[in-house]
Amino acid sequence: MLGDVHMKGDSWRIVLPENPSAAPHVEIDIEQAQNNPMNDRVLLVEAIGIAKDLMKRVNARRFADWPRRATKPDAEGKVRHPLLEMEETNRWYCLHCDAEITGPQIAGNQWHCPGCGASPINIFPEAFWLGPNDERPVPVQARAEGQEIEPIVSVVDPRPRLDLNKDQVTHLIRAALFEDTTNASERMGAGLAEIWVDDDLNVVVSFKDHYWPEDKEPVAAIKVAALLGIEIDLEVTWSNPLFAWPGLGTVTHSTVEYTRLMLDAYRSHGTVEKTRKPITPQSELL
After folding, report:
1. pLDDT exceeds cutoff 80 at 276
2. Could you give the CA distance from residue 242 to residue 252 in angstroms, rounded to a whole number?
3. DSSP one-letter string for 122-150
4. Is the pLDDT of residue 5 over 90?
5. How many Cβ atoms sit within 10 Å of the Cβ of residue 113?
6. Contact yes or no for 30/155 (Cβ under 8 A)
7. What is residue 183's predicted lDDT score, i.e. its pLDDT?
8. Do residues 138 and 126 touch, judged by C-beta distance below 8 A?
9. How many whole angstroms separate alpha carbon 44 and alpha carbon 41?
10. Which domain of life, per UniProt (predicted)?
11. What is the arrangement of strands in the sheet containing 91-94, beginning at the earlier edge strand?
12. CB-based contacts of 207: which residues, under 8 Å, 6+ apart?
């Protein structure tokens, strides 16, 4: 989250979450796991202490924008939500775990749920999401005040890891399609092509018939799929063209030139609707 504190050294990293009841996360690089400085308990505690001091400064900046009653309950335990316009109350409810939280509890935990750690935007003065037949909220089970939280230590491989997803595959295939184009029409076809990627990352590319020759193979896209170890299927489907005379795009590689040809064709053989600004004459574009 935005309020987390991050510290790092040679072969280690510490993340102190914004939620004060959450455990610090310590990452140790696998190559230095045996002789890592964070294996020293005293040094680890000292490093986390420095992170906590930094967190105090982060919190001071964050709390500066909060109403005073958000962190200081009144005599009845009533507090005010720091982010949402709501009435003050001494009972609050978590949207995530349905827990009932007292005003002092939620204020003391900086408006994170003491039970599940949900953020302040999930805390409300009423459990409005529960129906009449749902179980009613029960008091939150929070850790004892002053109880130390053991850090979570993980040994990790810090090297960049490629774990392909559908979005990445889609972008690579589409970039390759543009590389396969030889004219303005095909370039529009590469942009209009629908690309589906299944859970196994295999790809189906569906071209629009007016903008991609039915007998043309997208060589670059096929090679990209082969490098990724995935299958690619191609199809060409019928569609309405974006503009009349779509074949005009096959005579030039320039989108500017295609636009000129298309506008001239509409002026000569069709109509051009009025636009907000007059269409600039070709002579002024040259």
Report:
1. no
2. 17
3. GEESS-TT--TTSPPP-B---PPTT----
4. yes
5. 26
6. yes
7. 96
8. no
9. 5
10. Bacteria
11. 100-102, 91-94, 123-124
12. 189, 192, 193, 234, 235, 236, 237
11 in any annotated domain: no
Q: How far apart are CA 15 and CA 122, in angstroms?
A: 23
Percent residues over pLDDT 70 in the chain: 95
Instruction: Domain count for the chain, please give it.
Output: 1
231 located within any domain? yes
Pair of tokens at residue 272: 């051009």
User: Does residue 71 lie in a domain region?
Assistant: no
pLDDT the model gives residue 286 = 55
Whether the pLDDT of residue 143 is over 90: the answer is no
203 within some domain: yes
pLDDT-derived band of residue 3, with 50, 70 and 90 as boundaries? confident
The phi, psi pair for 102, rounded to 5°, reads -75, 160
Q: Give the tokens for residue 155.
A: 């040994």
